[in-house]
Structure formats: C-alpha cells, structure tokens
Protein: O-fucosyltransferase family protein
Organism: Gossypium harknessii
Amino acid sequence: MRRDFCDGVGIARLLNATLVLPKFEVAAYWNESSSGFSDVFDADYFITQMNGFVNVVKELPPEISSKEPHRVDCSKRKGQFDYIESVLPFLLKYHYVSITPAVSQRRDRYPKYAKAALCQACYRALKLTESLEKKANKLLEAIPKPFLSLHLRFEPDMVAYSQCQYSGLSPTSMKALEAARGDDRKPWTGEAARIWRNRGKCPLTPNETAFILQALSIPTNTSIYLAAGDGLMEIEGLTSIYSNVVTKSALLSGEDFETMHGNTKAALDYCVSINSDSYMATYFGNMDKMVAAMRAFKGLYRTLFLSRRAFAEFTSRGLEGKPLMEALWKAHKDDFIKGRGSALSDCFCEFKL
C-alpha cells in the first residue's frame, strides 16, 4: 500500500493533478473492512510536507464526491508506458479518475519534478499517527537490545500461492494450507515441483530459516523481533532453536493489539524493522523493498535477504549438516559482510530534497 501510494503521488505530479487521500482496501489481505489514510498516517503532516510538490486534499468537493471515479487500469501495461499519453485524456474528460498503477513502470523514467514529489512523499512526508508512533516506541523500548528484526513469510495463503510442496507439516498446518489452496492453487508435483523449488519460488519454513541463521553464525540467544502477520505455520521450528523471539502480540497489551487493523499492525512491523539493529527477510516482497530502501536512506546497512534459491539448490544436491551450512555461508557471505541489502536505485532522488 505504501509503495502504490508513493507511486500515486508521482503520477499525480506527472499529470499536474490534485491527489485525494485514499482508502486502503485491506480486505483482500486481512479479511477486514477498508480503513482510511488517517488511520495509519498523520494526514495534516503529510499535506504540509507535500506543499509545493503536489496538491493534496482529504476529501473531494461535493460536486465531485457524488460521482464514481473513472477507473483506469494500467497494471498490465508493459514497456515504456506513458501516464501522460494514456491517463491524462481521461482526467481532462472526467475530472476524477482512480488509477491502478503500472507495476512495470520504472520510476527512473520520471522527469525530475515527479521524482522529487515521489521521494518527498516516501522519505519525508509519511509519518505514523501519534497513537501508532506511541505503540511503535513502546515496542522498540520493550525489545531487548541489540535485536534482529526478522520478516518471516510462512502463512497459509503465502504458501498456497507459491504452489509448493512441503513434507512433514503438522496436521494443523496441513488443514490451514488445504483451506487456503482451494481448487485453483494445487501444488506442483514431480519434476515440475523440483524445477519450481530450485528456482527459489518456495517460501522458507521457520525450521529452514533457523538453519540458515545458524549457518551465518547468528547466536541462538539473539533477540529476534518477529515481523510477521497472524497465522504463521510451524513457528516452533524457529523458536525451538532461537528462544529469544518476541512478537508484537506478546509485547503490546491485549486491548492495544486486538483493536488494531491488519494494516496498522503491518505499519508497526515496518517501523520496528527500519529502526532495528539488523533486518533479515526470507522473501523479497514489497515490504522488504521498502524497508531495505528506508534503512539505506537512514544509513542503516545491516540488511540481508535469505536465499531460497541457494537453500533449494544445495539441498537438492543432497547437502545436509555441516557441508550445507558451509555452502549457505558462502552463498550469503558477500551480502552478509557488506550488509547493504538490495535498496533499489530508482527509490532515491538524484538530488537533495
């Protein structure tokens, strides 16, 4: 959501349009009703910070708010897609449009004035609400220092989407996984499953994650903040080896935690992760890209993405135990020593804001 919103700011500047603060459609991820921008971010602060970059309003004027926006789906456009050519005519005709951004559109093709607006939004103007900031600070104070923030992805929907096979899962995990798979996400089998796994498409289990952490000589008494959603499967595979694992649900009071939306919980994970002593992720998804970029922007370089492909390739060769650990160390060594992660170059402005 943060990524798409920042893209929306850049697009609004490209089109010389006014940006309306959005509703976040969270139902697809957390089975909840949508919530507003102001439930997560300080809207007044954002509008003030964006002054001079792009015009932002909280609500539409009455003469427009009664209408449905003209929807423009740019998501499947490829190549050098041009928003001015493809979207501006609709904006001029209907005066009110909503956009599904083109995922393939590279931000480094934006003119500098649009890059400046996007970067100002992403790195200077987005601040959590006061209540969320208090919760985030409460979490940061409660986590034993120094600590590693670990973004571990092994939820039923994630594993179902990957279409990967796993043996040895508990009956509870298998039941949750089968429910998430339905009829259209059956796992690959045979040679196709092997090829798929060796391409690094299969999420690391908590047990595999713990094994890689040991291969990287991360002490088993390390304080680990688990940046993850509800419903993680097989978490005992990690906690049986790394005993100092803490979660937001354990550190926040029950009332604080239970009344939060899924996206506000994710915002806490994001905030803790960009302020952690180290950050590791088992997946290079949208949150991980944003965290890596922000950590690099802040000069925090202890960021590492664990290699699913390396783990799959080595285990398919029959490596296990110490030889597997040595191979995993070599696969991660350069990134581990540099500690710079993979902040994308087009996340940053080419000049000082």
